[in-house]
Amino acid sequence: MSDVTAPMAGKIIEVKVEVGATVNENDELVILEAMKMEMPIVAPASGTVKEINCKKGDSVGADDVLMVIE
């Protein structure tokens, strides 16, 4: 299992996958806005999205778990 975490505090502006989706390593999962820049958050490994802990508009902190890939 791999946790996908926020590299820094920011705001979620898009979630690109749903629970149950199959993803490959380096696929874009979430777009985070931080310091007025859009930052894609990518899958650290291939697998299936088991849970999503954020939604569009959420504010997140550094190292918050955004989703879990199994």
Commentary on this structure:
The chain is an all-beta fold. The chain has a single domain, classed as RNA polymerase II/Efflux pump adaptor protein, barrel-sandwich hybrid domain (OB fold (Dihydrolipoamide Acetyltransferase, E2P)). It has no helices and 8 strands. The chain has strands at 2-5, 10-15, 22-23, 28-34, 37-42, 47-52, 59-60, 65-69. It has a 4-stranded antiparallel sheet, with no helix packed on it. It is globular. The N and C termini lie close together (4 Å).
Overview features:
4-stranded antiparallel beta sheet; OB fold (Dihydrolipoamide Acetyltransferase, E2P); mainly beta; 70 residues; globular
Give me the CATH architecture, please.
Beta Barrel
Residue runs with pLDDT of under 50 for 5 or more positions? none
Span from first to last CA? 4 Å
Assigned CATH superfamily: RNA polymerase II/Efflux pump adaptor protein, barrel-sandwich hybrid domain
Instruction: Please give the radius of gyration in angstroms.
Output: 11 Å
Task: Set out the fold topology.
Layout: E1 2-5, E2 10-15, E3 22-23, E4 28-34, E5 37-42, E6 47-52, E7 59-60, E8 65-69
Antiparallel strand pairs: 1-8, 2-4, 2-7, 3-6, 4-5, 6-8
